[in-house]
């Protein structure tokens, strides 16, 4: 039945089913770093749940997977870190039309014509790094957004990440840990030779490699990083926009991705998406979309967040890659 024709009993039943399925997939993905379905299949079910919850707001539980970051618990063996500023997920869109609607909606709150910073959506896992007087003192994963896992011992084996900044600043920066495509291929080949289960994709391999009790395993895994956020950036770094922030992080010696572009209208965003999509295969790391962020940092505070996502940013997700579609088709016919 279409959502519009459903009564609330039928909707409640469907919601329950979807919650159960999504929780199961999220557990496999986030806790075990071993998904059993493609992201596009997860995204489709998630979107369906969102549609049902929008049509039947009385059926939205605070425990719903749509109301929680990651929807997973931290691995019990690793020490815990509390995120004073929660680490959020991102809202997502799958078409230029949805993206236009989002841009129109954000513009509504402001008289000034907004600029946006367009960035690549790096396919890895979120990381928070704390520097005190320029020295790296703590690294943690996103976890459920409020409580993450302490990976300080592991992070020292991510070569890109400086132990010391170029200035003696005390700051928390956030970004993405990823496994370069080549390192992923080599890792899976060696696991196959050793008869070990292979990783489904570089993102799961990165997560599985960082979240290790034994940091020497992380050392063997060749992880990299891109940073793109700083807490209280305006005060601590004296910057006013997201694009300035990226340049400032680079000056501090942090790895940043330099393919970002400041855009002001939907045509610019579309051009950026098309050119980055065309360039995707030539990158040494995986991306699963484009992130568009309101460029002015003071407007981030004005727009605020939901319990799960910032309202000042959105992810445009790429359609599933052809190889994935082919694999699924084969699965269906056997
Ligand atoms: P997400 O990965 O879609 O987006 C949010 C994350 O993007 C942020 O937390 C950040 O870590 C990252 N990011 C990368 N580049 C960024 C940039 N430039 N700026 C800001 N953030 C950037 O959201 P999520 O909540 O981590 O995961 C949801 C996604 O995970 C789903 O869309 C689905 O595709 C996948 N998933 C798949 C399964 C499965 O079984 N296959 C299960 C659960 C989740």
From TrEMBL:
<feature type="active site" description="N6-AMP-lysine intermediate">
    <location>
        <position position="121"/>
    </location>
</feature>
<feature type="binding site">
    <location>
        <begin position="89"/>
        <end position="90"/>
    </location>
    <ligand>
        <name>NAD(+)</name>
    </ligand>
</feature>
<feature type="binding site">
    <location>
        <position position="176"/>
    </location>
    <ligand>
        <name>NAD(+)</name>
    </ligand>
</feature>
<feature type="binding site">
    <location>
        <position position="119"/>
    </location>
    <ligand>
        <name>NAD(+)</name>
    </ligand>
</feature>
<feature type="binding site">
    <location>
        <begin position="39"/>
        <end position="43"/>
    </location>
    <ligand>
        <name>NAD(+)</name>
    </ligand>
</feature>
<protein>
    <recommendedName>
        <fullName>DNA ligase</fullName>
    </recommendedName>
</protein>
<comment type="similarity">
    <text>Belongs to the NAD-dependent DNA ligase family. LigA subfamily.</text>
</comment>
<feature type="binding site">
    <location>
        <position position="317"/>
    </location>
    <ligand>
        <name>NAD(+)</name>
    </ligand>
</feature>
<feature type="binding site">
    <location>
        <position position="293"/>
    </location>
    <ligand>
        <name>NAD(+)</name>
    </ligand>
</feature>
<feature type="binding site">
    <location>
        <position position="142"/>
    </location>
    <ligand>
        <name>NAD(+)</name>
    </ligand>
</feature>
<comment type="function">
    <text>DNA ligase that catalyzes the formation of phosphodiester linkages between 5'-phosphoryl and 3'-hydroxyl groups in double-stranded DNA using NAD as a coenzyme and as the energy source for the reaction. It is essential for DNA replication and repair of damaged DNA.</text>
</comment>
């Amino acid at each position: 039945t279409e959502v519009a024709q459903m009564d609330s009993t039928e909707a409640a039943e469907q919601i329950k089913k979807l919650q159960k399925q999504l929780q199961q997939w999220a557990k496999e993905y986030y806790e075990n770093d071993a998904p059993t379905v493609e992201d596009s299949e997860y995204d489709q079910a998630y979107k369906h749940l969102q549609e049902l919850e929008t049509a039947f707001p009385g059926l939205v539980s605070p425990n719903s997977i749509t109301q929680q970051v990651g929807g997973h618990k931290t691995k019990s063996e690793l020490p815990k870190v509390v995120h004073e500023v929660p680490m959020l997920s991102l809202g997502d869109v799958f078409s230029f039309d949805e993206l236009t609607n989002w841009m129109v909606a954000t513009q509504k709150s402001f008289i000034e014509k907004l600029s946006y910073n367009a960035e690549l959506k790096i396919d890895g896992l979120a990381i928070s790094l704390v520097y005190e007087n320029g020295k790296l003192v703590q690294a943690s994963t996103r976890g459920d957004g409020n409580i993450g896992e302490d990976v300080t011992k592991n992070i020292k084996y991510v070569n890109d990440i400086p132990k010391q900044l170029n200035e003696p600043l005390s700051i928390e920066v956030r970004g993405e840990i990823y496994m370069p495509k080549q390192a992923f291929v080599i890792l899976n080949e060696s696991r196959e030779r050793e008869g070990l289960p292979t990783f489904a994709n570089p993102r799961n391999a990165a997560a599985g490699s960082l979240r290790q009790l034994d940091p020497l395993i992380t050392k063997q895994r060749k992880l990299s990083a891109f940073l793109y956020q700083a807490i209280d950036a305006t005060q601590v770094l004296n910057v006013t926009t997201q694009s300035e922030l990226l340049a400032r992080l680079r000056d501090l010696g942090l790895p940043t991705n330099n393919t970002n572009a400041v855009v002001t209208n939907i045509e610019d965003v579309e051009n950026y998406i098309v050119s980055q999509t065309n360039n995707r295969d030539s990158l040494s790391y995986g991306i699963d979309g484009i992130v568009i962020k309101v460029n002015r940092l003071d407007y981030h505070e004005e727009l605020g967040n939901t319990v799960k996502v910032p309202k000042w940013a959105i992810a445009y997700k790429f359609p599933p890659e052809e190889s994935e579609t082919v694999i699924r088709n084969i699965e269906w016919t056997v």
